Amino acid sequence: MAFPEPKPRGPELPQKRLKTLDCGQGAVRAVRFNVDGNYCLTCGSDKTLKLWNPLRGTLLRTYSGHGYEVLDAAGSFDNSNLCSGGGDKAVVLWDVASGQVVRKFRGHAGKVNTVQFNEEATIILSGSIDSSIRCWDCRSRRPEPVQTLDEARDGISSVKVSDHEVLAGSVDGRVRRYDLRMGQLFSDYVGSPITCTCFSRDGQCTLVSSLDSTLRLLDKDTGELLGEYTGHKNQEYKLDCCLSERDTHVVSCSEDGKVFFWDLVEGSLALALPVGRGVVQSLAYHPTEPCLLTAVGGSVHCWREEAYEAEGGEG
Fold it and tell me: Repeat WD: residue ranges (predicted)?
């Protein structure tokens, strides 16, 4: 008699705290992995941006040049540049190696909530509480944006970019997807102010979080509601959400000091991870491994799966 094959092991969730970064930059407004997940950026209320090796807990460089708190940042595909946006209404392009400001783009009428590079890192897209998304050419000397997307009726909270799409969430309760190949705009009405949007890793779905303490998974092409995820608290703050590295779980910050993981297909709560006291302001999920970064107050925690052993016996 043949024994059944052992069941493949399910995805492991990062629930072992590996490192704590005391960032020393006031409140950490956002934490972001770079493109390959080896480094991370932290955005501080003290106007600085910092680059870290999160698994080692080492600070690599500090970037100073914003006039007010930094609210979001992103790294380019080749790790040579960073972009950031903040309360000073400016979008800044940085040289990673030297720490110098390459360009400072001004034009938004309010604070910049979100920034992203396009795939080639030739354009920075920035979303602001002034209800606009502006596209800035990194190689041009022109001070004005090359394009402005101003369909939103209230502030832009979240912008994500694929190779031919821009996904934007707004406080007006709509998710807008700009298909740049087709020259079309698709809009889905959620109803509650949107705090974060993102593409699934397979590009088929969009995840939307809003201030009714609900996350919704939508079919990208049809707008059909595929799943709803609740149990966390999100009624006041702009909090991050994402999908795990293999699209198996929906992950969200919460205002009660936890990070919530739901099974994407079943919609059931898989884990409520206690992270700290107060609001978990930001999170970042590693692009290929079960590794999570969380920001609470002035600290960032790095989490791995239970079976993970750090190199050199660290733990």
Answer: 21-62, 63-104, 105-146
Chain-centre distance of CA 64, in angstroms?
Answer: 21
Q: Of the candidates 237, 223, 240, which has an alpha carbon nearest to the alpha carbon of residue 284?
A: 240
Q: How far is the C-alpha of 42 from the C-alpha of 52, rounded, in Å? A: 8
Q: What is the pLDDT of residue 141?
A: 87
Answer yes or no: is 269 within a domain. Answer: no
pLDDT along the chain (315 residues), means of 10: 61 93 97 97 98 96 97 97 98 97 97 97 98 96 94 98 96 96 94 96 96 97 96 96 96 98 96 95 96 97 91 50
Number of compact structural domains in the chain: 1
Read out DSSP for 57-112? TEEEEEEE--SS-EEEEEE-TTSSEEEEEETTS-EEEEETTT--EEEEE---SS-E
Cα separation of 61 and 300, whole Å?
16
pLDDT at 6: 57
251 within 8 A of 264, measured Cβ to Cβ: no
Residue 290 falls within a domain, yes or no? no
Position 314 scores a pLDDT of 46
pLDDT at 5: 62
Quick check: is 24 in a domain? no
- Neighbouring-strand partners of residue 263: 249
How far is the C-alpha of 149 from the C-alpha of 134, rounded, in Å? 6
3-class DSSP assignment, residue 166: strand
Looking at every residue in the chain, the average pLDDT score rounds to: 94
Reported in sequence order, the residue ranges of 118-204 that DSSP labels E, i.e. its strands, are 123-128, 133-137, 147-149, 156-161, 165-170, 174-179, 184-189, 194-199
Residue 199: the pLDDT is: 97
